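hey so u asked for the seq, here:
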Amino acid sequence: PQTTFADVAGAEEAVEELQEIKDFLADPAKFQAVGAKIPKGVLLYGQPGTGKTQLAEEIAAALGKPLYRWHIKSTTKAQHGLYEYDAVSRLRDSQLGEAKVHDIGNYIVKGRLWEAFDSAEQAVLLIDEIDKADIEFPNDLLRELDRMEFYCYETRELVRAKHRPLVFITSNNEKELPDAFLRRCFFHYIKFPDRDTMQAIIDVHFPGIQKILVSKAMDIFYEVRDVPGLKKKPSTSELLDWLKLLLHEDMPLDVLQSRDPTKAIPPLHGALLKNEQDVMLFERLAFMARRQGS
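ran it, structure tokens below
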């Protein structure tokens, strides 16, 4: 089943805060009236698995607005969000004598930004995991997001937004974003769920699960996250995957309750530890515990 904010503790406060931000983005005159620059979007920042992407998706659903998702990769360029010219297809069609080859517009592939600009109603544009791209990627978008227009050189067409989209940008902080870009964004930090909030999230995904199993699993999960020197801390999604494996394997509860400190690696650790360095760290901790116990 689809999980919505209504299912998760603390969601109402997050929606109310972002509703205020949305009102400012939807009405730039409020910023201009006090001499401020119009913000380019809302930067949702937090660790992986904290629900940044889902937050933007649920806000779009709550507002009843169309959502355009632009998932960023390491090879993504700002131009990809505007449009791409498919020269290869045009060359092939010209060799086949296709009539449409005379209209270059047939070979312009619209990007997510163009689609959001072209929407008949105000849309929500989600630029997901912007920190995966090159360091210059955010700055390359500033002009288009500022003026809400860009020029298509192939068709000699100026593309203007019919309605200013609400722009949400997510970042896992894998790399620092340029200061010029940060200055123009609202910053909204999504903290990692505390134990009570995590319990509410688990209840949504696993209704009826044994409370004692969840309690012991969360003990281990937060202990793992608190280990100094951990390169990649397990996220919410990894906890959910781990619980699913524990249930599927019908793991005896006493395995979690009476965990041997000389075996520091938790059962089915492959769902929690996703880095060889972290596995070796836990193996060293187990070795040290055995030496101290002997």
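Residues 49 and 260 are 29 Å apart (CA to CA). The two ends are 50 Å apart (CA to CA).
lmk if thats what u needed
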